[in-house]
Every structure is written in structure tokens, then in C-alpha cells.
Amino acid sequence: MSTVGESAGPESAHVTVWSDIGCPWASLALHTLRAAAAERGQDLLIDHRAFPLELFNRQPTPKYIVEPEVIVIGARRPELGWRVWSGVESDYPSTTLPALEAVQAAKDPAVGGLRGSDELDAALRYAFYGESKCISVHSVILDLADKCEHVDAEELAKALESGAGRAEVYAQWHVAQGPDIQGSPHLFTSDGYQAHNPGATFTWTGDPNQGGLPRLDDYDPSWAQELLDRVAR
């Protein structure tokens, strides 16, 4: 697997992001960061680390938790292009581990490096939240990879066949159980910046298992400008 040092040139800033692809808050943060970097014309590499919620919780992340979050986030930030699940109910992903593993496997320079890995991560998130695709399925992952400019889908297929990415996801899960990683998403830069779920002010009205709903009181995207300023120094 590549490292930030191997993939990031002197003109490229980088940030490490711990997250689950099935976490709407992480997907919001990453979209905000990518959009801010693109608007500034700033080259940014994202080193993805897995925070696999289903391993922490010992169950699939429930649709009745994810979907209300998708609704409140998508309503506040319509540019995301999200919608409620419109696919066949039985196709709703019960696991994000294959997708998380593919993002890790894509870090290999022969597959795509950090740039390709981030492209694949973005494609997987939009496929889930915007297109209602089952990103648990191997063929769906490879079809998305084939559309990523910096990902060699054939090399990714070979890597996944040999089990690439799985050991990395589990190793990162063990690290994420320590005190330094607070949840999905948690962002870090090399100069000491860190933020857990930046910009979002929200709460649950009650226990989601008992019918509670998420309430997004505010979302301030200016955190991304601060982060980009820091990594550009």
C-alpha cells in the first residue's frame, strides 16, 4: 500500500480522514472539503482510513438511522444530490466492508494511489446516497472504479481477488478503538489540526431505536477553508 509520503508531491497538501462510507456525516464533510479545494484550485490528497461502524456496533448500520440523516443533510445541502433509497428494498447494502476494502486496495500505486483511492471513495458515496446502488456488491464497486480517471479497474479487481484491503480495514479498526479517533468522520492534518464531524450542529430528538429523529440545527462549511489554509502553508 502507498503512504501519503509516497503519493503526495511537493505541490499537494494532504489530510487524513477516518470514516465509514455508510456514514452520511462523513460523506457531507468529504463533499464539503473536496468542493472547497476544487473552488480554490487547490490540489488536495485525502488519505482514507476506515472507521467501520458495523464492526464497532456488531450489526449493519440500520437504514432507519441512515435515511433520516440523509434527509436532513440532503435538505440542508441540496447540491449533494442525495435522495432517499429508491432501489429495491432487498438491495439496500447490509455491509460497507467491501467498499471500505476497495478504497484501501486502491491506494496501491499500481491501482491508483491516494488520488485514485479518493476518487473511488467519492464515487462509492455518491452511488449509495445519490443513485441507490448496492455498494456491497463486487461488480458494482468495479463498475464505479472503471469510471474513475485515476483508478485501474483491472488492477483493482486483481488486488481484491487476492484479499487486498481487508487487513488494512481491520488494522485501522483496531487503531480507531483508541482514544484519539472519536468517530466518523474525524479529520487530521500533519500540523496538528483535528476535527470530529466539523461544521455540523445537530442532535437526535430521542433514541433512534425508539423513533427519535436527527435535527440539523446548523451547518457551517467554513471549517474546510480553515483546513485548506493550514495544509497550504
Describe what you observe in this structure:
It is a single chain. The chain has 233 residues and is an alpha+beta fold. The protein has a single domain, classed as Glutaredoxin (3-Layer(aba) Sandwich). The protein is built from ten helices and six strands; from the N terminus they run αβαβαααααααββββα. The chain has helices spanning 4-7, 24-40, 53-57, 63-76, 97-105, 113-129, 138-146, 153-161, 166-176, 223-232, and strands spanning 13-19, 44-50, 186-188, 194-196, 200-204, 214-219. A four-stranded mixed beta sheet has the order 2-1-3-4. The protein has a two-stranded antiparallel ribbon with strand order 5-6. Helix 5 runs antiparallel to helix 6. The longest helix has 17 residues, at 24-40. Mean pLDDT is 94; it is low at 1-11.
Helix and strand layout, with pairings?
Blueprint: H1 4-7, E1 13-19, H2 24-40, E2 44-50, H3 53-57, H4 63-76, H5 97-105, H6 113-129, H7 138-146, H8 153-161, H9 166-176, E3 186-188, E4 194-196, E5 200-204, E6 214-219, H10 223-232
Parallel strand pairs: 1-2
Antiparallel strand pairs: 1-3, 3-4, 5-6
